[in-house]
Amino acid sequence: MPRVYNWQIGREMSYPHEERHSQYQFAFVFNPNRCLGCQTCTMACKSTWTFSKGQELMWWNNVESKPYGGYPQHWDAKLLKLLEEANPGKQNWNARKKDPQSMPYGSFDGMTIFEAAEQHPRPEGQQGALGYLPTDDEWRAPNIHEDTATGSHFTKESQYGGSVELPEHKVWFFHLARICNHCTYPGCLGSCPRNAIYKRPEDGVVLVDQSRCRGYRKCVEGCPYKKAMYRPTTRTTEKCIGCFPRLEGKDKEISPTGAPAETRCMSACVGKIRLQGLVEVEEQGGWANDPTNPIYFLVRERQVALPLYPQFGTEPNGYYIPPRWVPRGYLNQMFGPGVDGAIEQYSCPDRELLAVLQLFRANQQIVFRFEIEQGEKVGECEVTMPNGESRTQELFNDTVIGFNKLNEEVARVSIEEPTFERPAGSHVNSI
């Protein structure tokens, strides 16, 4: 296999295709600390894209309750087991040596899904990526075990009283919202024998050419996140398309000047957990240095948002701010070795980070650049840090301003929300 560089695992790795990169990359940050599990995003996607015959069990967007939820069921646990069987006891991170640009989380010394596949040739030919085909039953629900909590000891003492103490809860669950990660090195693309899957050069969105697809389901097998889905009525694969007409500025009601807009799932989010962006990509594959882009700021500048299962090797472009109450071992397995630093920053954000966090769901157009207007100090609060120490957080009424691709102002949000009093007599329900 050709060799490509994966900055998320800090080293070169095998991949079935030569290295190529798009001009911009579709990317997003989700914040599970805010997620309500309301499934509004799920239904927004469902009602837009997957409402037809043969798509009944397709959920391009889903929100699953971890640790027991999953769509399809056990998608991550099954693949982690396959990787461990392929490389017993060696699926480890080395976080001692880091470089901010080329290896921000250290290096992953284990096998990726592509390297593990090389160790297991099959009679019908080389598998592009280690994977499996889920059973029909495993696709039956987008969030099985919804709101089901877990704990090391289910006793009266662990479930009540001490169960909600930070930094880790004794009984816990969290909502993990998921869409296609539009990976830099997609497992679905690497597994397709028909070359029916490709990345758009302008924005890195991963799409399926259904005129070439023959329904072999190799992409379903090879996608570690199981976001490529087989449609039995057409015998082809379908998947999240990143709502690319919106990315192209084709929705004139949202983007009258033609600026890129957010996807349906992003713009419908009630809990304001989602921030979508397009980051510029350098020729060699790294992100162009742009700390005023909110996605770049959260992912590369501050590393408060982390990739989902970076050890799979696909370099996913979906990032998550780790939920601060969940046991660290579970989070390290899911998001890599940057969890402690991310949670520490999120627990007590400085004024710049706090301002950028206000941009989540601030406008339906994609924010390409932000500016911060500093305001006066409005208060202080005591914060319990992950190590149990107490820290004083100073609050400033800063205003963050977001600009779209055309440098037009599309968002203006202050830390201290204004209060409006309706005039008495003008409204029948005025107090």
Spatial strand order of the main sheet? 14-3-16-15
| Contiguous uncertain segments of 5+ residues | none
Number of strands: 21
Mean pLDDT: 93
Tally of helical runs: 12
Query: What overall form do the CA principal axes indicate?
Result: globular
- Tell me the β content: 15-25%
Query: Roughly how many Å is the radius of gyration?
Result: 22 Å
Number of domains: 1
Structural account:
The structure is a single chain. With 431 residues, the protein is of the alpha+beta class. 19% of the residues lie in helices and 21% in strands. The chain has helices at residues 40-49, 75-86, 113-118, 156-159, 187-191, 218-222, 244-247, 264-267, 294-301, 328-335, 339-347, 351-357; strands spanning 3-6, 11-14, 24-30, 62-66, 93-94, 107-108, 150-151, 171-172, 174-178, 197-199, 206-208, 228-231, 236-239, 274-280, 306-307, 318-320, 369-373, 377-384, 390-396, 399-403, 409-414. The strands form nine sheets. It has a four-stranded mixed β-sheet, with helices on one face. The chain has a three-stranded antiparallel β-sheet with strand order 17-20-21, covered by helices on one side. Strand 1 (3-6) and strand 2 (11-14) form a beta hairpin. The radius of gyration is 22 Å and the shape is globular. It starts with a strand and ends in a 17-residue tail after the last strand. The model has no long low-confidence stretch (mean pLDDT 93).
Task: Provide the fold topology.
Blueprint: E1 3-6, E2 11-14, E3 24-30, H1 40-49, E4 62-66, H2 75-86, E5 93-94, E6 107-108, H3 113-118, E7 150-151, H4 156-159, E8 171-172, E9 174-178, H5 187-191, E10 197-199, E11 206-208, H6 218-222, E12 228-231, E13 236-239, H7 244-247, H8 264-267, E14 274-280, H9 294-301, E15 306-307, E16 318-320, H10 328-335, H11 339-347, H12 351-357, E17 369-373, E18 377-384, E19 390-396, E20 399-403, E21 409-414
Parallel strand pairs: 3-16
Antiparallel strand pairs: 1-2, 3-14, 4-9, 5-6, 7-8, 10-11, 12-13, 15-16, 17-20, 18-19, 20-21
